[in-house]
Amino acid sequence: MNTNQLIASDLLKINAVTLSPNEPFTWASGIKAPIYTDNRITISFPEVRTHIADGLAKLIRNKFPEVKVIGGVATAGIPHAAIVADKMDLPMIYVRSKPKDHGRGKQMEGSIDENAPIVLIDDLLSTGKSVLNAAQALKNEGYNVIGVMAIFSYELPDSTKNFKEAGIEFDTLTNYSTIIEQAKAENSISDDELVVLRKWRDDPWHWM
């Protein structure tokens, strides 16, 4: 089992990912989806969070060897960033969704050199807008964001488009395609349900 499959299996095992092809969820955006993800619960499972941290650290070393700072996106990315920064013996920062409305109005917490290459960590990517907003906030303050890492991606076309437009590279430990194939391999979904889940991947906006 490779890392993509291991993390997919972990997320399914702890119900961080729920597949429901016959009774789809309605996301906050209004989109109907046969999947719901809550990666926040991963921090409650030591073995799973270790697999995630080891996987992220390895991926970051391979893809961004020049990294000098690990950043966490509030709130779900913060604990994973903290563990990864510790494993890599690197400074850590975190970024709020918006500046504080008191004090000095800071959006980033931490103390780093402005030129230090930063990799931001989030728990999942849908369209990528939240983590890209965090990256832009750092760039606006003169910081150097070189990439984004996450545990999971829905593989929405908008995500790839948004990262390309922002000029930021990204990667994830696992993704929607791996999740549904792993679920089938573990016999938690049927062949017919796999067909439905693949249809959503191929056209998430018009699959029903």
TrEMBL record:
Homodimer. It is an enzyme of class 2 (transferase). The gene is pyrE. It catalyses: orotidine 5'-phosphate + diphosphate = orotate + 5-phospho-alpha-D-ribose 1-diphosphate. Its EC number is 2.4.2.10. Coiled coil: none annotated. The lineage of its organism: Bacteria, Bacillati, Bacillota, Bacilli, Lactobacillales. This is Orotate phosphoribosyltransferase. It comes from Apilactobacillus waqarii. Belongs to the purine/pyrimidine phosphoribosyltransferase family. PyrE subfamily. GO terms for molecular function: orotate phosphoribosyltransferase activity.
